[in-house]
Design a protein that fits this description.
The chain has about 60 residues and is mostly helical. It has helices spanning about 5-15, 20-55. Helices cover about 90% and strands about 0% of the residues. The longest helix has about 40 residues, at about 20-55.
Length: about 60
């Protein structure tokens, strides 16, 4: 199960049970997962740019 899905489940459980703390933890977990995904995507894009520049230098 992905971190985002775990966070969503925790948020939903918090809402259903009235546990504000658990709901907030779920939202926080989801935000962390989104930030991690964005960082991974940025890393991959930077790698692609670096690869493109290297290929250009090889010509």
């Amino acid at each position: 199960m992905s971190e985002n899905a775990k966070g969503k489940a925790k948020e939903t459980l918090g809402k259903v049970t009235g546990d504000d703390r658990r709901e907030t933890e779920g939202k926080t977990d989801q935000a962390k997962a989104k930030m991690r995904d964005a960082a991974d995507e940025a890393r991959e894009r930077a790698k692609g740019v670096g690869d493109s520049l290297r290929d250009r230098d090889d010509r």
